[in-house]
Design a protein that fits this description.
Layout (H helix, E strand, L loop, with lengths): L1 H22 L17 E2 L1 H4 L23 E8 L7 E7 L10 E2 L8 E6 L11 E5 L7 E10 L15 E6 L1
Antiparallel strand pairs: 1-2, 2-7, 3-6, 3-8, 4-5, 5-7
């Protein structure tokens, strides 16, 4: 009698499985993702970088493009993981109304703007521009060598204060 009851219970369980299996829908699950390089650490000085351009003399700003005085500075990323081979800085800020490659002076001086380049002045970085540098394998640092100046995108810049703000977003490859 015990064997019969056990056989009936097992048969009933198998029948339930067959009924459930025939009533189930086939579902496909698609899993996607992206493997990205780990971030570096933004150096403390870079987080709130202040670049003092000093005074710009009005006689240097009388002609468009005037002012030969550049100030070199750098942005620094440290502790870059071994899997990170390069870093990209994307610059953004208010654009000057006369020169779309320059950043707007938010101070009181008229016809003056901020021009930012690499240190040999061969590439101008304006709004939405990007600069990519390699991570040094021995120091695990990425250094962005930059230069900036107050310049006149138009004629006859007037005296006053000068203040420009540039935001930077770093991405890693």
């Amino acid at each position: 009698m015990k064997k019969t009851i056990t056989a009936l219970i097992l048969s009933g369980a198998a029948l339930c499985y067959v009924v459930m299996a025939s009533a189930a829908d086939l579902v496909n699950i698609s899993v996607t993702g992206r493997v990205v390089a780990s971030p570096c650490v933004v150096d403390t000085d870079t987080v709130s970088k202040q670049v003092d351009l000093g005074p710009a003399f009005a006689n240097n700003l009388n002609q468009p493009g005037g002012n030969p005085v550049w100030k070199d500075f750098q942005l620094l990323l440290t502790q870059c993981p071994a899997a990170t081979h390069s870093a990209t800085a994307t610059f953004s800020g208010d654009v000057d109304s006369t020169d779309p490659t320059a950043f707007k002076n938010l101070g009181t001086g008229v016809n003056s703007a901020l021009q930012m380049t690499n240190t040999d002045h061969s590439v101008i970085y304006g709004n939405a521009s990007q600069m990519t540098v390699n991570v040094d394998n021995s120091t695990r640092q990425a250094v962005f060598p930059l230069s900036a100046r107050i310049f006149s995108p138009a004629e006859n810049a007037t005296g006053g204060t000068f203040n420009a703000a540039v935001s930077v977003v770093f991405t890693y490859q």
